[in-house]
Structure formats: C-alpha cells, structure tokens
Design goal:
94 residues; mainly beta; seven-stranded antiparallel sheet
Length: 94
C-alpha cells in the first residue's frame, strides 16, 4: 500500500536583519523543510537569493502582473527551475 503524503503547510517570515543589514525571507513547512533567502529590491523587481535556489519576482507598473523565475543550483551552475506569470483578476468586473 502506498502511503499518502500529508498536506504541505508553508509559512514565511519577511523582515530586516539589523546585524547582517539585509532583508530576508525565511520559509518553513510542516515536514521540516526550510529555506533562508536574502531579498534585494530593484525598482519593480525583488530578488531572493538562497544557498540552493534563487528567484526574481518582477511586477508591472500597474501592479496587475507578477512574473516569477526560479532557478536551482547544481554545482556551480544555476539552472531553470520554474517560470510563472500571474495576472490580477478583478473580483467585480463591470
């Protein structure tokens, strides 16, 4: 019999590390998986840099579209992991 995995519950903390003088994103979930990312802001983009993954979140000027590109590290090389585009949906269309 194959055992079904339990539901993943992810939590994240965003903040400023005064000692390291950096913004951070820390994520952890109920199976024990956790990550720590340094956050850097570039105009309409946010970069998350971690030991094993990194991502760039880019927002359009109107705030209606978010493009996310994740990469993962294999040795010294960074490889594509996933790419996602999200569009805001108007909950009250005219």
């Amino acid at each position: 019999m194959i055992e079904q995995a339990s539901k993943c519950e992810l939590h994240a903390l965003l903040g400023w590390d005064r000692d390291a003088e950096r913004f951070f994103a820390r994520s952890f979930e109920n199976h024990g998986f956790s990550r720590d990312y340094t956050m850097t802001f570039y105009g309409l983009a946010v970069r998350l840099d971690g030991e094993y993954e990194r991502a760039t979140y880019t927002f359009d000027a109107a705030g209606d579209t978010q493009t996310v590109a994740w990469q993962w590290r294999r040795g010294e090389n960074w490889l594509p992991l996933c790419h996602r585009v999200a569009h805001r949906v108007d909950p009250h269309p005219s």
